[in-house]
Amino acid sequence: MSLLTVEDLTMCFGGLTALNQVSFGVERGSITSLIGPNGAGKTTLFNCVTGFYRATAGEIWLHRPGQQGQDLVEMLGQPFRLGDWVDARAFTRRVWFKVFGGSHRVARAGVARTFQNIRLFREMTVLENLLVAQHGRVNRNLVAGIVQTAAFRRSEREALERALYWLAEMGLEQSANQLAGALPYGYQRRLEIARALCTDPVLICLDEPAAGLNPRETAELSGMMEGLRARHGLTIFLIEHDMGLVMEISDHVVVLDHGEVIARGTPQQVQKNPRVLEAYLGVEEAA
Ligand SMILES: Nc1ncnc2c1ncn2[C@@H]1O[C@H](COP(=O)(O)OP(=O)(O)OP(=O)(O)O)[C@@H](O)[C@H]1O
Fold it and tell me: Does residue 43 have its Cβ closer than 6 Å to ligand 1?
């Protein structure tokens, strides 16, 4: 079963249908790329998967190994449905997610992301950026914090160790005490990935991670993504315009155009697909 399953996902902004009944799966341990021309709906899809947007219709399921599938759309808190009034369990879940739901639940379920436009805490150090990202998982008990209980100190120490671990994995250990905003652009991109990794995800969604990188930095990024998959068993879902990178590292490619999936398959398959060529290159007008 796929780690992530998107079923008939539709997202409307007023009269504009940005996504129209989009369905596909992201296999566990794969690198899956989402491509398509500008305005195809890629970022909108990411925003739905990561809980930033509540989809108008459709389902998004996360199937963690050894666990029951989790409905990521439901976690955001949905309007009541007819069945809720006859099923006490469904009613309770609906109310619970309405009160306590939100994108933080999607992150806790194991979905992390980076952004097309880097969104770091620029005035914090690199290390502080990674500690803040773990706010949801460290011990936040006020009394434990004041008294400095052993459990509180252990939780703080683990957060620091985790931050230092991912800094080293992303090759940023030398920059730990620098201000995030002062880092070179390529390092800021890496820091965004390290910050996402600190939340201990099973699925990491990277929105144009190679944007603005030079060819050497892009090659390093490609090696890092391969390493994350091979050494940490992570599943990577990325939006990318750099077709060289997409074709090199992807196991599976999903192509969107005008909010619809027009092709899916291996890089070789989508490369030859006439609908993909048409979407990217256009067709000659009939005389
Ligand atoms: N918050 C929003 N409100 C209204 N319309 C939106 C919103 N977000 C996206 N759209 C519209 O949805 C469509 C898809 O946009 P989206 O940003 O998802 O495309 P994209 O494929 O990520 O494009 P790009 O490659 O340029 O980043 C566009 O027509 C866009 O204008």
Answer: yes
